[in-house]
Amino acid sequence: MRIFLVLPVVWALAHERFGLALFISLIAGISDGIDGFLAKHFHWQSRLGSILDPIADKILLVASFSTLAFMGLLPLWLLWLVLARDLIIVCGGLLYHYTIGHFELTPLWSSKINTVMQIFLVLLVIVNQQWVANLDKLLEYTIFFVMLSVVYSGVEYMVIWGNKAWKQKTKP
């Protein structure tokens, strides 16, 4: 469902309907929570679900980030940094899969913190545009901490998966 909400969120942001964008994002967040609860509670977890769930989250977040950056409400360099991190993780995972073997990409805590920071930043930009102006200092600090979390989690993925790859390749 979250994948289908991406276009309405982008449309609402692009047309400066920030309240609507926030409402649609809230629906997406609630559906994510319900989906996760039901999957765990009733043991409805599947490989497909474990792949689609983070993809849906990432598409919605990247689309929101991109829209806000192209509107000039987020720095473009931060968007490129976020995209570069995600691309490095995906390419690293594919490289590992095709050169070493199957793996389960489990999210690291630094990645979860990064995602929360990015979501908080998007919500903060929306709140700043719609209801509470002059959150400039808080936005600056949040952008800084998002940048730090993007870099840290990206490096952590590279180190952990690089070490796993090295150990697999050098195993007798």
UniProtKB/TrEMBL annotation:
Transmembrane segments: 20-38, 59-81, 87-103, 138-161
Stored InterPro entries: CDP-alcohol_PTase-I, CDP-OH_P_trans, CDP-OH_PTrfase_TM_dom, Phosphatidylglycerol_P_synth
Keyword Cell cycle found: no
BP terms from Gene Ontology: glycerophospholipid biosynthetic process
Membrane topology: Multi-pass membrane protein
Keywords for the protein's UniProt record, in alphabetical order: Lipid biosynthesis, Lipid metabolism, Membrane, Phospholipid biosynthesis, Phospholipid metabolism, Transmembrane, Transmembrane helix
Gene Ontology CC annotation, any one: membrane
Pfam families: CDP-OH_P_transf
GO molecular function terms attached to this record: CDP-diacylglycerol-glycerol-3-phosphate 3-phosphatidyltransferase activity
Annotated localization: Membrane
Principal location listed in the UniProt entry: membrane
Protein's recorded name: CDP-alcohol phosphatidyltransferase
